[in-house]
Structures are given as C-alpha cells and as structure tokens.
Amino acid sequence: MSDSGEMSEFGYIMELLARGKVTIKNIERELICPACKELFTHPLILPCQHNICHKCVKELLLTLDDSFNDVGSDNSNQSSPRLWVTSPSLDKIDRINRPGWKRNSLPPKTTTFPCPGCEHDVDLGERGINGLFRNFTLETIVERYRQAARAATAIMCDLCKPPPQESTKSCMDCSASYCNECFKIYHPWGTIKAQHEYVGPTTNFRPKILMCPEHETERVNMYCELCRRPVCHLCKLGGGNHSNHRVTTMSSAYKTLKEKLSKDINYLIGKESQVKSQISELNLLMKETECNGERAKEDAITHFEKLFEILEERKSSVLKAIDASKKLRLDKFQTQMEEYQGLLENNGLVGYAQEVLKETDQSCFVQTAKQLHLRIQKATESLKSFRPAAQTSFEDYVINTSKQTELLGELSFFSSGIDVPEINEEQSKVYNNALINWHHPEKDTADSYVLEYRKINRDQEMLSWNEIEVCGTSKVISELESNCNYAFRVRAYKGSICSPCSRELILHTPPAPVFNFLFDEKCGYNNEHLLLNLKRDRVESRAGFNLLLAAERIQVGYYTSLDYIIGDVGITKGKHFWAFRVEPYSYLVKAGVASSDKLQEWLRSPRDAVSPRYEQDSGHDSGSEDACFDSSQRFTLVTIGMKKFFIPKSPTFNEAENRVLPMPTSIGVFLDYDKGKVGFYDMDHMKCLYERQVDCSSTMYPAFALMGSGGIQLEEPITAKYLEYEEDM
To answer: Any idea where the B box-type domain is (predicted)?
Structure first.
C-alpha cells in the first residue's frame, strides 16, 4: 500500500468519525481508567498493554508498599511485631544486638502490582514508573472527548492581560494557547518562533519526539516485537534489555500496525447492518435466556420441593416411631411403678401375715399361709433384684445423615460431559500463602474454573465459601489466618454449564506469620567446608580433601567440628515461622535457634583447636542439647541425618525408639519469642514433632550446622507468577 493510499484510507476513517457515523461519545468506555473509573489523565502503557493513569499507578504502588511494610513490621499481628536486625560479624560481635537493616540498606520498593484491567501481576522492573511509555495518542483522544463534552467552554489565551481573550490556536513548542493578537506578538514573522507547530485550541501538549524511558536522551526508532513496545538503539545493543529480542524499524512497525488497524476499523464500519442484525438477535437471545432461566428456576424448585416432601415424609415416619417407642417404655415404667407402689401398701400385708403367724391350729395355718407366702415371696424378690422395665436411651433412634449430607452438599447441575477437576494434593501446599494446583481430565473442554475456599473453625463450624475465578489450573491464595484449617475445592465451567465440585482438600496454615531471611555469608561462614549459592537460600557441606586432612587429628583425640551458618536477620519479639528442607543424602545436620551471645561463643572458638561439642561453662554436651533438661537454655537445635529426625532427649522423650522419626520432606520452626518457646513441625501435615522452652533474653537467630556431606534448602515463599506475554506479531 502506498503512502498516499494509506493516508487516504485513514483519512476516510477519520472522516467517518467527523461525520458522526461513529460518534466520539460512543468511545467513552475506552477512555475510562480501570483504576479510578474516570477519564485518563496522563495515561501510561503497562507491560500487559493496558493503560492506567499516572497518578493511579503511583497510588497502587504506595498502597502495596504500605501493606508490605505493615506485614513486614507487624506480621499481621500488632501484638507480635517483627524487628529486622543485623547479623553478628566476627570482627564486631559486640554490636550484635543493634537493630537495623543489613548493610544499612533500605527495603526494596514494590514494583509489582495487579493490573486493574486484566488482574494479572505486572512487573515494572528496576526503573518502575520511569520505565513506562506515556500514551500520547490516547491522551490526545481523551482531550478531543473533553472538548466535545464541553463545546460551550472556550480555552482562554494564556498570555492576555486580564480579562483574557478566547484562544484561537495552541503552540505545541511553547505549550501555551494564544489569541490572534498574542500569537502574532510572541511568534513574529521571520523569527525561529514563527516556525513553531501550532494546532487548534487545546490543553493537551505532547512532545514532538518520543524519547526512550530507559535512555532518556535517546529517541525511540525501533519496535521490539517480543515486548511489543518502542525501543532505542541502545536497548538493542549488547548490554540492553532487548539485545536478544527481535526488533523491526519504527516505519515498518508503523506501516504494519496501521494497515491492520485501518483494515479492521474499515471492516467494522462496513458491517453496520450486520452489527444491527446481531444486536437484534442478541435481544431475542436475552429474552429467550430470561424465559429459560425462569423455567430452570421453576424446575429446580420442583425438584427441591420433591426432596422436601420426601424429607417431611421420613421426618413424620421417624417421629412416629420415636413416639411409639416412648409410649411403650412409659407404659412399662408405669406398670413397674404401680407394682412398687403396691409394696408401700404391703404394710397391711405384713400386719396380716403377723396375725396369721399367731394361728396355732396347724391345718388352718397351712390353709391360709400358702397363698400369703407366695405374695410375700414375690414382694421380697422385687426388692432384692431391682431392674427398670425399659431403657431410657434412644441411641437406636439417632438419625445418621452424614452420607445424605455429603450427597446434598455435592448437589449440582448435570455436568453435560464436563469432568470433575481433581486437586493435586502433592503440588498443593501452604506456607506464607496457599498454592492450589489441580488438573482436569479433559483440560481443553473447560473455559474457566472457580476455586472455593473457607476457614474451618476449631469446633468444625464451616464458614461461607469464598470464590475466585481462575483461567488456569493453579492459584495462589493470600491473606489466610495463621494456625487455621482451610478447605479448598474447585469446579469447572464451560459456557454456562458447570461441573460438580472436586473433593475438598484440607490444609493447615503455619502457627505464625512466615519469617523471611537468607543465609549469612559473613558471620561464621566457612567457605572451605560450606558452599553457598548466589541466592543465599541453599547451603551444602563439602566433605572433601580438607576433611580428610583434618581426620589425622583423630589419632591424638581431636574431633571434627560442626560448620555453623546462621540467618542474616535476627528476632527480638513476636511469633515467627520458617521452613527448610534437608537433602536425603545428608549425614548430620543440626537446625533450630540460637541467641546472639551463644553464637558469639561458638563462632569465637578457635576452629579445630578444641572440641566444639564440649563447653567449659555448661558442663554438658552442647552439640547434643538433649543431654540437659534446663529450660533456661540459650539455644535449641535438633539433629537430622541419614533420613531420620532425632527428637532431643527429655522427660517426655527418653527412650531411644521414641526419639527417632522418619525425616519429613520439609521441616518448620516456630519461635514464640515473648513466651520463650520453640517448636519443630512436619510441614506436610503441619504437626508439631517437638517443643521446648528456650531463653530469649537476647536476639535470636535461625541457626544451622552441618557435618560431613549434606545440604539445606530454605523453603521458598509462595508468590503469584508474573504474566507471560506471548509474541503476536
């Protein structure tokens, strides 16, 4: 397509807009910011290609920063705030109790937030808002809309003396509006200003050249097809963020996109009659949907009324059976009570019997005493063996509705071929957030899913379900309460048809907010024996040549030492929870908490000079804290190794067979600083394996130690995955 032909076609489309074929009022919904629900003000283009006001994205980031700081400092619990403190260093161990951020650094600013348009998480990168393009085209259209909406309101001259005159043109170079007289004065003929670009009166001034937000002195001259955004030549160079991306020239991208947009717009405008026909069809479909919906409601009411009738019939039958049994038992009790009432009246019988005993004639006595003796004997037996004539319990009449309740809970519409999704219990877990994964036997048949979750109270009371619509087969649920059971279930949707709900998955949240830290690569870290990854969330013990050389000392009574490594953040108050995984091949790993002064003793001890498993001040084996039951202990470490979890010796766990458990896949540590208590949990079932008191009079740190081959991996916090943008050009 030639440039003249392209411009003529585009001009034709704009002419249709001008003629009113497509009025500017009809595009109002395209000019509304999804965040503030008002007309765009200085719109920015997000990585997901949606637009948002500059002020709105700043407010969103500030709101997320405030919530992040609240969580970080308060841990969602004002009674147990979390204080970040520096780790102890060997050369300045006396400063160990000073609070403050590590290396005096500030917390990272939040640059990730959910897009109000598509609700996917978008990452603004290191430059944040400064890395976003301003959508000048949308800004111009918004300005046209504003002018159309306020046609009676004139734009006044910016340079007139009061009272100002109505402006007739605006200079894009001066960013000001002028009346005819002022324009002549400030743009005299024959000067450079006379060459300025001027347009009709406007309040929207845009730069002539679009500059790169990452390289502010460079103009954009290329288009990245992968990121779908303009870039400059520095972005494409070896060190740029788009060096490995496919780019095209700006003129080529302009021509391609303009051709596509013009063609699509022309197609839509040319199909006006078809659109009107489809609108009429949609009106008929809406009426049909209304009728079918009412019919479906009536049908559902009929089915439920039948169920109610069955329940009422069963209720009447059950109540009649209970009443009949109750009447029979009461009759028996009444008869027995009358018999015993007769015993009270037997005082006359006893008196009569005493008078009979006075009879001296044997024949007369035998004749009278025989029947009397039977009556006396019967009364005596009743007194000797009292037994109620019936039972008071109605245990046999308790209605078991568990199966029916479960069936009624699963009551739903016919699936019409949509299979029930199944939650993957192995891939679903809970840590700082809950990650729920599920799979669908016929994945392509479902348009979307609805994930439901609710809290289960301690008395097993069920709260109402919370619903979240999900397009994929996984979802991260945040803001769950600590130390609570939650039920999760999911159902699939295809159009207006939904499948029955999946089986519920019950997960227990950690007993306290998750404590985030990394391994400290300075304080006590022995790089000869330990290998720390770049992220500082994994450490391995290298049982190599150095360990074999150290083994020579065993001949003279020395021991191989434990290699300690601690967290880079300390705890001075509140409740905290963290988790880690121990590699199955690990020989010996110790994990738990230790106070700053205890770490000071351990890390100051000359390595390989004395046994670190013996301490002069404690009088017991400090490497195996199970030798003492002192509740004022300044540290607590449990031993893990050879695929076993060893519970320290205590009055509760004294026998060896009761202290050795299979090693959990993931191990959690719960520290209640204020109460001086530490617990160790099996993360798979959130079950406490061991708990004891610990002295928290000083700063406490997550502490670990390794001997021989081994590895420790800190549990990674669960976060929402960022939106992946697919190439569409």
So the answer is: 207-250
Say how many C-beta atoms besides its own lie within 10 A of residue 185's C-beta.
11
Q: CB-side exposure of 532: number of CA atoms within 13 Å?
A: 20
Mean pLDDT of 643-663: 78
Residue 333: how many other CB atoms lie within 10 Å: 14
Global pTM reads 0.51
How far, rounded to the nearest angstrom, does the alpha carbon of residue 122 sit from its chain's CA centroid? Answer: 17
Contacts of 520 (CB under 8 A, 6+ apart): 87, 565, 566, 567, 568
The CATH number for 430's domain is: 2.60.40.10
Residues 273 and 338 reside in one and the same domain: yes
**In the structure, what pLDDT confidence band is assigned to residue 150 with cuts at 50, 70 and 90?**
low
- Tell me the pLDDT tens digit for each residue of 158-173: 888 888 888 888 888 7
Regarding whether 682 and 585 lie in a shared domain, the answer is yes
In a domain, 263, yes or no: yes
485/367 same-domain check: no
Joined together, the tokens standing for residue 124 give 């603004």
Q: Is the pLDDT of residue 501 over 90?
A: no
Query: Is the torsion defined by CA of 53, 56, 60, 66 positive or negative?
Result: positive
Shared domain for 271 and 128, answered yes or no, is no
Structural domain harbouring 52: 12-64+108-153
Rounded CA gap, 694 and 567, in Å? 18
Query: Do residues 535 and 684 share a domain?
Result: yes
- Within this chain, do residues 279 and 345 fall inside the same structural domain, yes or no? yes
Contacts 24+ apart (CB under 8 A), 527-532: 529/563, 529/706, 530/563, 530/565, 530/706, 532/565
Reduced 3-state DSSP string for 89-106: CCCCHHHCCCECCHHHCC
254 exposure class (CB count in 10 Å sphere: 0-12, 13-18, 19+): middle
- Within a domain: residue 710? yes
User: Phi first, then psi: what are they for 612, rounded to 5°?
Assistant: -70, -5
Which domain CATH number covers 659?
A: 2.60.120.920
Termini Cα distance of the chain:
19
- 385 or 334, which is more confident? 334
Q: To which residue do tokens 């990121």 refer?
A: 227
CB 52, CB 117: distance < 8 Å: yes
Please list, in sequence order, all residues whose beta carbon lies within 8 angstroms of the beta carbon of residue 335, skipping any fewer than 6 positions away. 389
- The answer to whether residues 625 and 691 touch, using CB atoms and an 8 Å cutoff, is no
**Total domains in the fold of the chain:** 4
Would you state the pLDDT for residue 90?
A: 37
The residue with tokens 């405030």 is 66
How far apart are the C-alpha atoms of 129 and 125, rounded to whole Å?
Answer: 9
Q: Side chain identity at 556, as an amino acid letter? A: V
Rounded alpha-carbon distances, angstroms, from residue 56 to 69, 108, 519: 20, 20, 37
Is residue 287 domain-resident?
A: yes
The answer to whether position 672 is within a domain reads yes
Task: State both tokens at 308.
Answer: 């109610």
Same domain, 292 and 330: yes
680 close to 576: Cβ distance less than 8 angstroms = no
Are residues 458 and 540 part of one domain?
no
Average pLDDT over residues 434-454: 83
Last residue of a domain, one of 509, 541, 571: 509
The Cα 154–Cα 159 span in angstroms is: 15
Tell me: the pLDDT tens digits for 184-220?
Answer: 888 888 788 887 877 777 777 766 677 888 787 888 8
| Segments of 448-574 assigned E as strands | 448-456, 466-470, 474-477, 485-494, 497-498, 505-508, 530-532, 538-541, 563-566
Contact 347, 380 (CB under 8 A): no
Distance, C-alpha 600 to centroid of its chain: 38
Domain's final residue, options 322, 352, 383 = 383
Per-residue tokens: 208: 């002539």
Q: Which residues does residue 705 pair with via DSSP β-bridges, in sequence order?
A: 564, 590
Identify the H or E element spanning 182: helix 180-186
Q: What is the torsion angle, in degrees rounded to the nearest 10, for the CA atoms of residue 394, residue 397, residue 398 and residue 402? A: 170
